[in-house]
Structure formats: structure tokens, C-alpha cells
């Protein structure tokens, strides 16, 4: 079996990424490869094309985490492709939006299901496909549209990228990945669409053969680099919520086992 | 009008009213904002399955404080609880479920809802820029779901109507909304525009019409919202 390269740190795993690279960044609240993005920020590559479901808000000055918005603010990004490129409400300004408005970086706003399908297509060797998302809105204007069986669809292109940053709970030495709960999200599809897929792993990496092959989410053949961050790992921000009502404590037991 | 208490519904009450209208055995997607709050009120014993864009199929209420699992999170970044029989898929498959027409009802938040059923929820600006916004999954959901409902506040914080004749913001496109649940009313959207089905307790038809920028017809079975 091919073995991915093992790295001791996120910094080492991203050290050779050159200027001008395109990079897929997985995650949506959960499953975000925070450590790889942070290492990329510290590494210094510029003129980047960043593809993710959201550019997020800049968090560096807030809690030390680095988001794509922080890379945009640092002038390191040529273009973003995302389904959230701006503040959802004028009361919640996003400084990255000002950079886009001033022409400091290009933004391509894409419906979220279309982002996902473009990545799945790219990773599966499909150059283009038709989808209904966006029809009837300004998004579809200027895009090639075609009717199938009486419905209108928009032509979309598959996406591949130089690198994919993914995060998994568990991996074995063969690079097989297992995700946990909604931390799966974009990770499996982005892992297939990166020419060099780099995976940050929460748990210590297991010997090959540790997983039942039926239970592997991303086969190791898609994974070029593995890094388990043993100490000082950056985790997802935890959001506190005001409870809407007294909640039923009789919730089903959730052990957290991925398989 | 009597001296009956007159308070708009709060977010949770709007969510509860909306949850009460979901039908047995539906697959439902609750959008960011007020809609996702309905997960606390949905009758899961009626076979309703809540599914989300990020791949949770079969989640239920918000996780109790101290029991949050950061990996079981809704697209609105609320920690929720998986139900027995739940399954997890990746993002592309989650949208496959949506696009293939299996979702019976998509409930979305909106900045504006129009009497023709169109609505606007991906950018708060009418500046013509299609590169900046927060479209999320709304354009996929509105094309893919069997029906689209909206849950929103009836007016802006400044008191301007959000229910209008025609949207002033860029529309989300796709299937037209058939129901709008607000803090003041439940309104059906049909061939003849807005029809008032329910009103917040203490609010008259005239009260609601006064903050609605399109004509309201009144259902013969008009009733108070069940709060």
C-alpha cells in the first residue's frame, strides 16, 4: 500500500506550498483544519486562491485563530470561492468584505450545494455539470443555462486545487481517514479534489489495518500528507447559546465513536 | 379591541408555531436564524426527520448545557442532539438529498418576502454585487425542496415592513415560498398574494396590514397563533 508522508508539525506539512497555489479548506463549524490554516498563515505564501464554504470572519485579533478572512486581510489572497463572502447583516461587518469591495481580492460567491458538487465533480474527474441552484436569481445571469425535461439548469465547472487541507478524527498509516459526526462535511470530497491532500488528525495515527475497510471514509490513496498535532492543537471555537427552553435531558447516549 | 395583552411573538414562539405546522413523516430542513430554533419544538414522534446541509440526517433538539458535542452542530452553529436512527453524510450527499426532491419542506429565514412568493435572503444590499453575500445553501434548497416556507420578523428593527409587494433586494430565485411565519402572523402565499391565516394574540387584521406593504386577504378561518 502507498503510504502518505508523515509530518511532525503543521508547519512542516505546509512548508513547501508555493506562492500562487490554490487550496481547498474543508470544514464548516466542525472539521476545520485550523492548524494547517494557521501554519499557512505563518509560512507566508501569497497570491493564493482559497476555496472553502466560508471565508469566515477574521479571528486572529479576536482569539488567535486564523481564518481565510485573516489571509485576505493580510493581502495574501488573490481570489476566494465560497458560499459566504460577506457579512450576513450590516450590523455584523466583516473586514474582509472591505478588501473585496476595494478590489484587493476577487470573490466568487457560489451556492453551497454547488460548491460541494463542484468539488465532488472535480475530485471525480467530471469537468462540468448542470444544477438548478441559482436559477431565477442574479447568480444565474451570464451563466450558461440549459433546459432538461422542462426545467432550467446552470452549467457549473468541477473544481480541483493544488492542495486540500482536511481534518479527520482518526487515520491509519495508510492514510485512511475516519471523520466524526458533522465534522465530516466537506472533508471527504475535498480530500479527493486536491492534487496534494494534507490531513491533520486529532487522534494518534494508528497502524495500517486498524480500520475495517468497510468503515473507511476517505481511502488513503487520496492522502499525501498526514500530521497528528499532539500538543497545542487549535480546536473549533465553542459557541455558547442561550437556551430557548428547558431541554429534555433524556437525550440518546452519544459515545462519540466514529464507527 | 379589548385590553388583551399585545406582544409580538419572540423567536422561540415563532419557531414553535412553525414547528406545529410541519406534517407527519416530512423530511425537513431548518435554515439559519429563527427556523433552526424549531428543532426544540418539532414533534419527532410524528416521524419528522430533520436534515441539515452539513450532513446530519435525523437530529433533534438543541444539546442541553454541558452536553454539547462540538461535532454535532447545525449549519447555524447550534449544537444539537442526534436521534436514534440518525445518519451522517458528507456535504455533497447532503445537497444531493436536497436537490433530488426528497426534502418535503425547507424553512428559510429571509430579509424580504413578496406577495408573489419570491423572497430575498442572500444579501442585505441592493448594490448589484453578485460576488458578495451569504448565499449558503438557500439557492439549492429553494430549487430542490418540495415546498419553501419562511420564518422571519414581520418588520425591520426600524419598523419597515419585510413583507412587500415586490422584493427590493436581489431574490433568491427558485421555488416560491408558500407560507410565511412571523412574530405577528401566519400568512399563506398563493395566487392572490398574501392571505392572513393566523394573527398574534391581541393583533387585529388592521394592525397587521399596517405593517405589511402588500394587501392582505383574510382567511375565513382566521384564528390566533397558538402560543
In short:
With 259 residues, chain A is α/β, with parallel strands linked by helices.
Task: Write structural notes for this entry.
The complex is a heterodimer of chains A (259) and B (227). Chain A has 259 residues and is of the alpha/beta class. Chain A has a single domain, classed as Glutaconate Coenzyme A-transferase, CATH 3.40.1080.10. Helices cover 20% and strands 23% of the residues of chain A. Chain A has seven helices and 13 strands. Chain A has helices spanning 10-14, 34-43, 60-63, 68-73, 95-101, 112-123, 187-193, and strands spanning 5-7, 22-25, 48-51, 77-82, 106-109, 128-131, 145-148, 151-157, 161-168, 170-171, 177-178, 194-201, 225-228. In chain A, strands 1-13-12-9-2-3-4-5 form an eight-stranded parallel sheet. Chain A has a three-stranded antiparallel sheet with strand order 6-8-7. Chain A has a two-stranded antiparallel sheet with strand order 10-11. The longest helix of chain A has 12 residues, at 112-123. The radius of gyration of chain A is 19 Å and the shape is globular. The two termini of chain A are 22 Å apart. In chain A, 52% of the residues are buried. By secondary structure, chain B is of the alpha/beta class. Helix content of chain B is 16%, strand content 29%. Chain B is built from five helices and 13 strands. Chain B has helices at residues 11-20, 34-37, 91-99, 138-144, 205-210; strands at residues 27-30, 49-51, 56-62, 80-88, 105-108, 112-114, 119-120, 148-151, 163-164, 177-181, 185-190, 193-199, 216-224. The chains are: A alpha/beta (259), B alpha/beta (227).
Main features:
heterodimer, A: 259 residues, alpha/beta, Glutaconate Coenzyme A-transferase, eight-stranded parallel sheet, 13 strands, globular, B: 227 residues, ten-stranded mixed sheet, three-stranded mixed sheet, 5 helices
Identify the CATH class of chain A.
Answer: Alpha Beta
- Please report which band the strand proportion of chain B falls in: under 5%, 5-15%, 15-25%, 25-35%, 35-45% or over 45%: 25-35%
Largest sheet of chain A: 8 strands, parallel
Biggest β-sheet description of chain B? 10 strands, mixed
| CATH architecture descriptor text of chain A | 3-Layer(aba) Sandwich
Distance between the termini of chain B: 19 Å
By CATH, the superfamily of chain A comes out as Glutaconate Coenzyme A-transferase
Order of adjacent strands in the largest pleated sheet of chain B: 4-3-2-1-5-8-10-11-12-13
Instruction: Give me the Rg of chain A, rounded.
Output: 19 Å
If you compute it from the alpha carbons, what radius of gyration of chain B comes out, rounded to the nearest whole angstrom?
17 Å
Broad structural category of chain A: alpha/beta
The average pLDDT of chain A is 92
Give the count of helical stretches of chain A.
7
Which residue ranges of chain B are poorly predicted, with pLDDT under 50 across at least 5 consecutive positions? none
Tell me the number of strands of chain B.
13
What letter string, H or E per element, gives the SSE order of chain B?
HEHEEEHEEEHEEEEEHE
Number of helices of chain B: 5
Number of strands of chain A: 13
Question: What number of domains of chain A?
Answer: 1
